[in-house]
Design brief:
The structure holds 2 protein chains of 2 kinds.
Chain A: E1 7-18, E2 21-32, E3 36-41, H1 47-55, E4 60-67, E5 70-71, H2 77-83, E6 85-88, H3 100-107, H4 116-126, H5 128-131, H6 143-155, E7 161-165, H7 173-188, E8 192-196, H8 200-206, E9 209-214, E10 217-223, H9 224-229, H10 231-237
Parallel strand pairs in A: 3-8, 3-9, 6-7, 7-8
Antiparallel strand pairs in A: 1-2, 1-4, 4-5, 9-10
Chain B: E1 4-13, E2 16-26, E3 31-35, H1 42-49, E4 57-62, E5 65-66, H2 72-78, E6 80-82, H3 95-104, H4 111-116, H5 119-138, H6 154-166, E7 172-176, H7 184-199, E8 203-207, H8 211-217, E9 220-225, E10 228-233, H9 235-240, H10 242-249
Parallel strand pairs in B: 3-8, 3-9, 6-7, 7-8
Antiparallel strand pairs in B: 1-2, 1-4, 4-5, 9-10
Classes of the chains: A alpha/beta, B alpha/beta.
Amino acid sequence: MAADGGALLELRGVVAGYDEVEVLRGVSLAIRTGEIVCIIGANGAGKSTLLRTVFGIVPARTGAIRFAGEEIANRPPTDVLKRGVGYVPQGRCNFPAMSVEENLEMGAYLRRDAQVRRDIAASLERFPMLAAKRRDLAGTLSGGQQQILEMAIALLLRPRLLMVDEPSLGLDPRMVEIVFDTLLAINRDGTTILMVEQNAKKALSVSHRGFVLELGRNRFEGTGRELLDNPDVRHHYLGG
Amino acid sequence: MPLLEIRGLIKRFIGVTAVDRVDLAVERGELVSLIGPNGSGKTTLFNCVTGYLATDGGRVLFGGRDVTNAPSHSVARLGIARTFQQVSVFPRLSALDNLLVFLQQHQEESFLARLLRSRRLRRLETEAVERARRLLDLVGLGDRATAAAGSLSFGQRKLLAFAAALMPDPELLLLDEPAAAVNPTMINQMKQHILALHRQGKTVLLVEHNMDVVMDISQRIVVLDHGEKIAEGPPDVIRRDARVVEAYFGR
């Protein structure tokens, strides 16, 4: 799906952190409907904190966060979720002792409509890798399969924006390709994607735009290509 | 005689043979990488070598000495250090103290010496702090020395754990995906440091999915698939090996 202009998510001067540590020191960025946007940066730059702040897990101390035109800063996560923001945190985040299918049911926990069954069936159809393992415990799946499952769980609430923190973490090269292909397919189906990645070259190559976060501030911004070609960005964040 | 020699190692979990009769020898001073798909037995092999899992068959020799199923602490004392995929730091200790803790086990000072805080002990402590600070600088955490490790990001905690493994100056270093969650520019520094250790004569066995790292620095690569060794050789050979391309690299 092509980016169509309107800002779906907008951050203005967001400051956030933990206890005495200020991690975000004034982040301003906008993500348009239909885009895949990637945030890269050094370790500790605030990338994961940014996603957590949007989702309402970390309080925003100052600044504005608007989603679909409405202020969502410091809203509780369930409220942010209901408004259409999905979030797949870094590392494993499923219910390992539940089956794949039960995990999908958990993903639809907030829904009360009659479509849920059909959506779970559609999800299994869309991700054949999961269908093959529907009765297996999630914890017995490979890391890559679990990552796909976690995205499928988040998609059951039909988010307009899906935030994914390091989807390629710990995956072998083949699975990395599959996970990025899956993100592209999710985006083609109409979901805007905001991801954080350290596999920066790969992530920028599939993103419409990217932001570089540096010490809690957005430092560079551009299309994936522009950032990949920017000598400063290459030197400091892409390993030369 | 190889520094690390694994002979016919077997590890079974319920219904699955995670490591299936694997032979692996690493010569003193060698830099070897172990690659393979997720679930091919790489971490299980590390766990068997370092006493975190009991083996179901085979032997592990370190410097010719049988260390099969030896407890982790004695394996560490013999000079094998390792890192973990999932970070293992003490969240309430400062970054600096996380490194100093790793040195404790190698300080063989007597109780009396500790009580009297002998000049020698004080010198050792000063050296340890200096060494820890250098390692923190190396992984970009120099300005976070006094911060609680729990306040660091996931990637920073991985870098801290990498530095901690270097703290006791081990003979053999087992690194389990050190580059995962680390920024590419920092990965380059990590790469340079692993090469520097290699030049100092240290022995390194590396598990890593980042092929920029594996192909650049390994002298030899061993490939596991479904618990079995399917290939072994220098990077250029492994890169083109049909079985490895099929099992691991994909398109």
